UniProtKB/TrEMBL annotation:
Gene3D superfamilies: TolB, C-terminal domain
UniProt protein name: Biopolymer transporter Tol
Native organism: Kribbella turkmenica
Family, per entry: Belongs to the TolB family.
Domain of life where this protein originates: Bacteria
Length: 283
């Protein structure tokens, strides 16, 4: 079931100017719990809510026709040219939906009834999707990083262990996939080299760090940081922080908010890398 707002709660969509740190409220709703902003090449923001996809245009949310795709969750990614939206649906599969006219196409393969696909990234050339494959084996919940051709084809598994991985997203050069993993004890940020499988840890602190989003120009990685001891990436958490990680390892605090799940699950940078978007859920 789609998430809904609690009594007295709001969804607030903000845009942050990275240079100044100033934030701007661009949309607010007391009726629709919307999540996970993407930024289209033409400057509109896309969010999901109530199992559907919405475009913010002229200060109003307009529903995007997904052509009969099952209800979606908050894992959706735009193709680099902005013509196609890739979504994760509640049936566990990935779909490609042409924006405008066109017929939806299922991208993912059948990997058994207990396997679910959660999309997070698309390669800079638009040819490959990065997703998290979630399966249950002997009562254990196993999540690994996978890729699949955007046109459909054979999956490639990049990680193969029992440490929970999530948020797999391509860097701007296409050579690395960034993700969070509990292989360090609790969730920290990592990246893995495409082709070699070499993994590198990027953060190491007491906070629980999720969803790395590299800027298009490679200048920083935006991510969601939960308080120490947080399990998973829950909703409605106080002291959730959005941070920027610079290439030299310096961490910059940008904003503290009430939120978590849905705040910034997907690539949310503006095409010029000057801004990013996020959602807060104040009560």
């Amino acid at each position: 079931m789609p998430r809904t707002l609690r009594p007295g709660q709001r969804s607030e969509l903000y845009v942050v100017d990275v240079g100044t740190g100033a934030r701007r409220l661009v949309h607010c709703s007391a009726t629709l719990l919307f999540e996970a902003p993407n930024w289209s090449p033409d400057g509109d923001l896309l969010v999901n809510g109530d199992g559907r996809l919405w475009r913010l245009h002229d200060d109003e949310l307009h529903e995007i026709d997904l052509g009969g795709v099952p209800p979606i969750n908050n894992d959706h990614v735009l193709s680099p040219d902005g013509t196609t939206i890739y979504v994760s649906a509640d049936d566990g599969h990935l779909y490609a939906v042409p924006l405008g006219d066109g017929t939806p196409r299922r991208v993912s393969n059948d990997r058994g009834p207990g396997f679910r696909h959660y999309l997070h990234g698309v390669s800079p050339d638009g040819r490959t999707l990065a997703y998290i494959g979630l399966e249950h084996v002997d009562g254990r919940r196993i999540a690994n990083v996978w890729t699949i051709p955007a046109a459909g084809g054979a999956d490639v598994q990049l990680t193969d262990d029992e440490h929970a991985d999530d948020g797999s997203e391509y860097g701007p050069d296409g050579k690395w996939i960034y993700f969070n993993s509990e292989r360090a004890g609790h969730a920290q940020l990592f990246r893995i080299a495409v082709g070699t499988g070499e993994a590198e840890q990027l953060t190491s602190d007491e906070r629980v760090n999720w969803f790395p989003h590299p800027a298009p120009d490679g200048s920083a990685i935006a991510y969601v940081s939960f308080p120490p001891g947080t399990e998973g990436h829950p909703a409605d958490v106080d002291d959730v922080r959005i941070r920027l990680l610079a290439p030299d390892g310096e961490v910059r605090e940008v904003v503290t908010l009430f939120g978590g799940q849905g705040t910034m699950n997907v690539p949310s940078w503006s095409p010029d890398s000057r801004s990013f978007a996020y959602v807060a859920y104040p009560l």
